[in-house]
Design a protein that fits this description.
Layout lengths: L2 H7 L14 H6 L7 H7 L28 H7 L3
Length: 81
């Protein structure tokens, strides 16, 4: 298995979109995790697997029609503001 696949299955990257979760709590669980409810639903995962820990994306569906992040909180995190 490749490194990226291992990181997705280990809770380091979102299993659906590959976004970095940057969350020690999720990576310690060593199970697939998601950055948002939208990714969990698209993948058929459980909402319990959505990372909502502080410092991460907000865990709410937040993509606009073009697939871009429309949540101001998530945009700020992505840009390290």
């Amino acid at each position: 298995m490749g490194d990226i696949a291992e990181m997705m299955l280990g809770g380091i990257l979102c299993e659906m979109c590959g976004s970095a979760l940057d969350c020690d709590e999720c990576s310690e669980m060593d199970i697939p995790m998601y950055c948002s409810e939208e990714c969990a639903n698209d993948r058929g995962g459980s909402i319990d697997q959505v990372c909502t820990h502080e410092g991460n994306r907000c865990g709410k569906p937040h993509n606009n029609a073009e697939g871009e992040e429309s949540c101001a909180e998530c945009q700020a995190i992505k840009l390290n503001l």
